[in-house]
Amino acid sequence: MMPEPSTVDTPLKKLVGEKTAKALASHLDLHTAGDLIYHFPRRYDERGEHTDIRSLDVGEQVTVLAQVQRTAVRPMRQRRGNLLEVTVGDGSGGVLTLTFFGNQAWRERELRPGRWGLFAGKVTEFRGKRQLNGPEYVLLGEGGEGEAAANEEVEEFAGALIPVYPAAAAVPTWVIARCVRVVLDTFTPPEDPLPATVRASRNLVGIDTALREIHRPSSKEELYRARRRLKWDEAFAVQLTLVQRKHRAAAWPAKPRPPRAGGLLDGFDARLPYELTPGQRTVGREVAADLATAHPMHRLLQGEVGSGKTVVALRAMLQVVDAGGQAALLAPTEVLAAQHYRGILDLLGPLAQAGELGASDDATRVELITGSLGAAARRRALAEVAEGRAGIVLGTHALLYEGVDFHDLGLVVVDEQHRFGVEQRDALRAKADQPPHVLVMTATPIPRTVAMTVYGDLEISTLSQLPQGRSPIASHVVPAAEKPAFLDRAWRRLREEVAAGHQAYVVCPRIGEGPSSEEEAPREDDSDRRPPLAVTEVAPLLAEGPLHGLRIGVLHGRLPADEKDAVMRSFAAGDLDVLVATTVVEVGVNVPNATVMIVLDADRFGVSQLHQLRGRVGRGSAAGLCLLVTEAMEGSPARERLDAVASTTDGFKLAELDLEQRREGDVLGATQSGRRSHLRLLSLLRDTDLIRDARAEAITLVEEDPELSRHPALAASVAALVDEERAEYLEKG
């Protein structure tokens, strides 16, 4: 009797049995035949080729393809019975010891020298030797006692390429391979969602061929073709989603806000104490042209720390005010909102004093609305906004709450876009009668392919020049564990800067006891490490020790808002020598007199985060110095990451490094939704050409068929790969 055909929706328990299905569901979140078919191998081993045992990390859950070299049985010291030690090698000189406890003579006969097998377990170290304790394994090849079942399980390994799957201790790779074989034997593929014209023009194999070859490749060439087709599906789904969003947004009406000669913007340009960079002028023209159209601007402005994004945004805001509208700037923290407020008031001077003695004829008012405003001040500010007297409104997410009503909201500027959710941004948009123009700013440099894939529905402007007068920043790694004297020297160097009349930051990864949203999430390898250094613990130690006698302030996210603002004001005014802070200073804090930053436990921060942090120094005429203090040993991945940060101030190079070191699914929203990523094969760094081609095809297709109504299978495939939650994340960036 022929087994029933299976489809992507068939529950796994119907195909592989209840016990195995339960293990796949609980350990790998695989529930249907489609889930399993799209659980692609992580890599492919070749019999006779090594898997580089020397590169394995202690604590890592691994599967290695290796050959048995020798076996030895010795009595156990602490208890009765024998210990079987099996040494396996990978052909490169790397060896691994497998240890099995108890009297297992059958296993010694089975694991005889010369046999190849797949061995899975957690890497440990004993007396300097890498080992797997009691690993799961399956042997490859013919004959031998106890091997019939094993050979049945590894039938698909008869070819040269052996798939190794993302696995779990309870579900090793060969169990997954066996289940895949069972499913493929009955699998009826879905209708190929890709239009035949696209398949032909891009030389792509059919979906059925791709899914079969990626699991059971008949050759390296066929595997390459299968992977290319499945990568294309991922890239095409994302690009179609973004191009559709862009297409819909272009159809919305918006109120044009053209420039007005002799208005606020001209007055501001005339009083600027410095010249705009060529980049600021170019981007300014792009933004001005967008604002003058009857469709909402949707533009991303990216630029290095200190490249002058705020001035570009302020000029856009003034153009909107000149055209009779209002502009709102949404900042991620009260500290940053308050700083933008003070900075914009300073830049505008009498242009921000409408209704006051000595104000310019064209003046407007600037209001700050945050959660910590007192009741009377809040009522006054809300009236100014609702009646349209305040042309520029700054605030945190408090701007989104009911009760904040705009007279005519024409432009929304979002600072540090990645810190806001789609719902928050849409709530602010909804406060306008028509969709307002939107300008998104980020100081996190974005590699071209990431911009194309994550921000593909935004026009992108880049500021790459630094304004005149900005000083270079020197960065150095301070290896505190290897060379404690270097840390002493770092504190002396800080004192020297303070003695010369400058100020300093000391940054810690943690506030103190208890969780904090500012704190770096623990890395997987943090289990055996001491807790990260905390602001509330470090500040008193510095005050009593190496920084004794200096005026030290503390800043972190748990301080009351008025206290945070008071600390920042004191630091900006020069009343504090040293600010001990969390990453609350990462974005936008501007104190030109601060010349040195010491980052403690620097290996606990990401590459882009460190680049952002060091951008807080060297903002004036004096050179900046950033010292990255770490206990990470030379040659470790953490140390190499810090060495890379210290070696360059090119944020785009560092952004690519950051992307290489993170799981790329995270970039595309896998961690946002708490589910496994549906984008499994696409590499934003290595698949640049494929992403570019997919975008070109997506633009052509959406122009012909905006809602994909003539391609229902493709629309369903896109919805499956980029569900609504993930589509929102893509829009959010």
Automatic annotation (TrEMBL):
Annotated Helicase ATP-binding domain residues: 290-463
MF terms in GO: ATP binding; DNA binding; DNA helicase activity; hydrolase activity
The keyword Transcription is annotated on this UniProt entry: no
SMART domains attached to this UniProt entry: DEXDc, HELICc
Domain Helicase C-terminal: 486-660
Region (Disordered): 509-531
Keyword presence, GTP-binding: no
Protein name, entry field: Probable DNA 3'-5' helicase RecG
Coiled-coil positions: none
UniProt xrefs under Gene3D superfamilies: Nucleic acid-binding proteins, P-loop containing nucleotide triphosphate hydrolases
GO biological process, one term: DNA repair
One Pfam family matching this protein: Helicase_C
Provenance organism: Micromonospora globispora
PANTHER family documented for this protein: ATP-DEPENDENT DNA HELICASE HOMOLOG RECG, CHLOROPLASTIC (PTHR47964)
